[in-house]
Design goal:
82 residues, mainly alpha, Arc Repressor Mutant, subunit A, 3 helices, 2 strands, 46% helix, globular
């Protein structure tokens, strides 16, 4: 099957998405608020915040988080990874 995650269906996170999801979940647990996009970039070794925004969009589309536009750090974890 290789790395073809599209065949796994909508509800499965890719390894990168899972890494980001676990980071924001653990960060929230430790700090009581969500990380900034820049902090997520550093953790994910991403070159731009747009790549983080795209990953968060997919994680939200898959039903794990809810984002609130125009609010800093406005992410809510909706469900846990099984």
């Amino acid at each position: 099957m290789g790395n073809n995650y599209r065949s796994l269906g909508k509800h499965f996170l890719t390894p990168k998405q899972l890494k980001l999801f676990n980071y924001i979940k653990d960060y929230k647990k430790e700090n009581k608020y969500m990380p900034t996009f820049r902090e997520m970039c550093v953790h994910m070794d991403a070159k731009s915040t747009s790549s983080i925004a795209q990953m968060l969009g997919y994680i939200e589309w898959k039903g794990y988080i809810k984002r609130y536009p125009a609010h800093a750090r406005a992410i809510t974890i909706v469900r846990e990874v099984a």
